[in-house]
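User: What would this chain look like folded?
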Amino acid sequence: MTRNRASLGYLTRRLSGCALAIAMALSPALAADQSAETASRVVAIGGSVTEIIHELGQQHRLVARDTTSQFPDSVTRLPDVGYMRALSPEGVLSVDPDLIIALEGSGPPETIEVLERASVPIVFVPETYDGEGVAAKIEAVGEALGVTAAAAAMAERVEADIAAARDLAAASGRQPLVMFILTVQDGRIMASGTGTAADGIITLAGGRNVIDAYEGYRQLTDEAIIEAAPDVILMMDRGGAQGTAPTDLTTIPAIASTPAGAEGRIIHMNGSYLLGFGPRTASAVRDLAASLHAETVGE
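Assistant: Here's the prediction, encoded as structure tokens.
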């Protein structure tokens, strides 16, 4: 079985000349599995994938979703097959899917191998953290479901909306320094570097990620936090016991020593909304930009 790690629509966005000719030559292989287009028992892996399927009006084909798929609320009534990076083949196969649409990076690899051996078609949706990346995700999902025209129209609309939100955020000419904190455990701060969804949304919203010396997420030393001197701290609002209240952060000496900590400039936003990079991203950019500039006004 062919593993479709990206749709043809995604490839054609990024290839030209000879490479594009090769991609077009491969198109019959990408389109060969017609069961993917007529699938009626679809498992969605990745919150943005699930949101796109709903936005395309194809939610009636969903039979299960992963733990990160929490929007819209109706999706939570579907069976949960587990966290996208820690899937078990038994959980996925228990809902008898005839198509799996998974965000790139879903796994682990051992589970994917078992699913492939079970001859379940799997389409992997590419992810990059910008407007073009969101459009490519929409096109990939639309192609997998056989609704390419609707997906193309949606992709164009969403990409334009994100671009407009980005331009509006940049209009002030100011660029607040932002630190995105993923977790706080026993006073230890795990923060985002470059190449993450957090880095992408901060950039779109007109901020600058103060942690640019590494990619991904790492624990920061107290010295690194103080030296970074963020104007604003951004966190996911996880809710419940996982949440971290602003007052908790300001009791950490290194955080309290920063402009953000000293002034209590800490923004909490819903994680899937903020970092999902799906149909709601333009709204998230506008909301984050408004909060960033409200927090740092007058500086």
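The first strand starts at residue 42 and ends at 45. If you want, I can go into more detail on any region.
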